[in-house]
Amino acid sequence: MVDIKNVVVVGAGQMGHGIAQMSLLAGYNVTLVDINDDFVNKGWSKIDEGMKKLETKGSLPEGATAAGLMANCKKSSNLASAVKDADIMIEAVVEKMDVKKQVFKTAGDNAPANCILASNTSTMSITDIGKDSGRPDKCIGMHFFNPVPLMRLIEVIHSNNSSDDSVNKGIEFAETIPCLRGKRYVPKVLKDRPGFICNRVTAPAQIYQNYVFDKAAAEGLSWDQLDNDGLGGPMSMTVLADYVGIDVLYHGQMYYSQTLSPDFAPGKVITQMFNEGNLGAKTGQGFRDWTKGRPSPDKSAGKAKLYQLKYPLAIMLNEACRVLEEGIATSWKVIDDTLMAGMNMPGPMASNQKTYQRQVDVLEELVELTGKEYFKPCEMLKSGKWVEMK
Ligand code: 3HC
Which atom from ligand 1 is nearest to the alpha carbon of 49? Predict the structure, then answer.
């Protein structure tokens, strides 16, 4: 068992409370921290609700009770004192670099010297986040997927400054965190590049989605029609966008536009929803109305005939090849397994071993259609060398 007893989770929102709940189930003492008591109490109540649900089903670990586990969950709105005896801190606050850096600085100034500082950022540089912490060697990425209790993936990221010890401890810890749906999958992300593996592979599909959202809006098509075009995963396109959070998408796209290519800049539809505060499931309104629970597309609305699945499939294959090209991962099998564990969808690589030349043509066609240069096929894809990287 990894040498960790006390876990501090900073940020009591959707990701933070999920991480806290699963850490409690693993048997750790958890302190849930946010900027005010109201946020902490809301997160704590959601964990309590989840624990009671598991108790009713008889799914808690042997001998455990919901009340007993919740007694191990402290609440705090003071990060400096919350980390005083922490062995690991996991930050899951808003996707803003300055806010994350401040969390890491405060934690670094106040936590015991051997405490690991982990960020659950979706996209951002762990190296930058940990820069002012006073312990950059102890800073790592620990990237969970939404909903944390049900998605098996936790990516552990090696920053430019992380020590191998810290990364290995992060992996050992992540492997102890249960998942309600199967065994955790914990790949080591070898390089600190935007989006790491799973989000990086799927990120440029958002460029195409923005193109489609904006075109659908301009042509007066409904989100039901667009969703009926089919996304190829367990959730429809607009429902998944709302579920992830429009703010998360917006901040991510801004970050990618500054670090990977200006083609990632948020489109008109996403920008408008972000500016109006319609952030999806968390605010009750995004593309969809969430006030009565998770919405389902109206199948009778027909199709928009706008979104073509062949494009995101080619885009993901191209980006997965870039992940190999940049040395973020060294095996296509790891990339495919990462996609399956993080998004319940097959990765792009196993199925394209013999057909990748066709995807090169699809990508060229997409550059023509959208004018987005980022879709150009990369050398690794064109050469077919990636097929050997199993
Ligand atoms: N505590 C206790 N029980 C819980 C729980 C919790 N916290 N959360 C869920 N459960 C239980 C539910 O009560 C339910 O129990 P039941 O079967 O007895 O009714 C069970 O778990 C299953 O829950 P759902 O019914 O909600 O699950 P679904 O079968 O509808 O599947 C899904 C939901 C797994 C979310 C599926 O739709 C899916 O795979 N969607 C894709 C999600 C995805 O792509 N996520 C990744 C997003 S990207 C990301 O996160 C990256 C980040 O950086 C932004």
Answer: 1
Best residue for ligand 1 mutational test, from 91, 148, 180, 181 (most atoms within 8 Å of Cβ): 180
Tell me the C-alpha distance between 268 and 265, whole Å.
10
* Enclosing domain of residue 186: 6-192
Q: Which of 192, 208, 232 is the last residue of a domain?
A: 192
Residue 62 and residue 108 in one domain: yes
Q: Assess contact for 170 and 142: CB atoms under 8 A.
A: yes
In this prediction, residue 1 has a pLDDT band, given cuts at 50, 70 and 90, of low
What is the tens place of the pLDDT at every residue in 291-345?
999 999 999 999 999 999 999 999 999 999 999 999 999 999 999 999 999 999 9
Residue list, ligand 1 pocket, CB within 6 Å: 21, 50, 53-54, 122, 145-147, 149-151, 180, 199, 234-235, 240, 244, 248, 342-344
63: left (phi over 0), alpha (psi -120 to 50) or beta: left
377 in the same domain as 270: no
pTM value is 0.94
CATH number at residue 324: 1.10.1040.50
For residue 88, is it within any domain?
yes
User: How far is ligand 1, taken at its centre, from the CA of residue 27, in Å?
Assistant: 22
Q: Which of 258, 253, 256 shows the shortest CA–CA distance to 241?
A: 253
Whether residue 154 sits in one domain with residue 13: yes
